[in-house]
Write a structure and sequence with these properties.
The protein is globular and about 55 Å long. With 191 residues, it is an all-alpha fold. It contains 11 helices and no strands. The protein has a domain of 77 residues: Serine Threonine Protein Phosphatase 5, Tetratricopeptide repeat, CATH 1.25.40.
């Protein structure tokens, strides 16, 4: 029996892992999942494999299975901030907002400048109807990255949900410079 740590095995694993990442990049999610399933085996303890498979599963709409991989990715590598963000999104999608808040706050404790986590946290608070908390999270994201398109899109959604046409118009104006195609979509919402 060959040693699992031999260079031949590792290089083959790494080649397969990279092949799966290429499949994800090419939006061939089912093929990526098949490769990653083979790599993961019964009880994979490689956070990068778990995270990659979760991304492919999310793209296929398999949220529960993706959530399981994300929980493992976070447990195996607490520095995997993107896994926290995606797990927060999955929990929100599954209606587990309080758990999503806990996960996202842990990510933000680890990196208070993690803009994407602030954005998802804003989504969670909007879903809960906690508008002040949602705006606070989105304002923190904006303060960190004022030219981030996602932040402006989230703020536009916030203002739209609140019926604040002045705020929506301000986000429209910002997005006209940053992302004209998105601004055109928002223009249809303006009176």
């Amino acid at each position: 029996m060959e040693d699992q740590n031999s260079p031949e095995i590792l290089s083959e694993r790494e080649r397969n892992y990279r092949k799966a990442l290429d499949r994800i990049e090419n939006r061939e999610y089912s093929m990526a999942v098949a490769i990653l399933d083979e790599l993961a085996g019964v009880a994979c303890r490689e956070p990068k494999v778990r995270y990659a498979r979760a991304v492919a599963l999310l793209s296929n709409g398999e949220y529960r299975r993706a959530g399981t991989d994300l929980v493992f990715a976070v447990a195996l590598d607490r520095s995997q901030l993107e896994a926290y963000r995606h797990l927060g999104f999955v929990l929100l999608t599954m209606g587990k907002e309080k758990a999503a808040i806990k996960v996202l706050k842990e990510a933000l404790r680890r990196d208070p400048a993690f803009v994407e986590a602030w954005c998802v946290l804003g989504d969670v608070y909007m879903d809960l109807g906690e508008h002040d908390n949602a705006l606070e999270a989105l304002d923190k994201a904006y303060a960190l990255q004022p030219d981030n398109v996602e932040v402006h899109c989230k703020l536009a959604m916030y203002y739209m949900s609140r019926g604040d046409m002045r705020g929506l118009r301000a986000e429209y104006e910002a997005l006209r410079e940053l992302e004209p195609d998105v601004a055109a979509q928002i223009a249809e919402l303006l009176p």
